[in-house]
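User: Show me a protein chain along with its predicted structure.
Assistant: Here is one chain, sequence first, then structure tokens.
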Amino acid sequence: MPPRQIKGIAWAEPCLRPRGLPEKKPRRGSKAEGLRFERALARALGPRCTQGQWFRFMDDNGPGHCQPDLLLIGRKRIVVIECKLTFTLEGVMQLQELYLPVLRTHYARHEVLCVLACKNLTPQAPAGRIHASLRAAIEDALSGGVAVFHWFGAMGVDV
């Protein structure tokens, strides 16, 4: 299912997990492996990283909620990182069409940058935007769009 496309956003703010959502955590399979990948990257990033912060917002489609995987919050810049085991265009769309407008609205005084972190690449991955270091991916994201951080999960992260 494609991510919600934000249109005419009025406001956005952090919130607690919305009531009524199932709390099931997968124990096996690719979803469980994806969550382990996300947690490993969050640990590698250390205390500067916020994992799983929920946001609520209002746009022309009505009220909504979203939960970016990882946020690096600096004094002037926010880096939103979507974690996927395998590169997908859906991850790129999720960053551009959902998280970017929500975070730009809430963090209006900050520059918001988008990075897709993935372990496996596909031919769809934009060759000129793939980086082996998070620092390089963030630098690339400064030019706009989504940069790709190719991370294997076993090494540290340079920020």
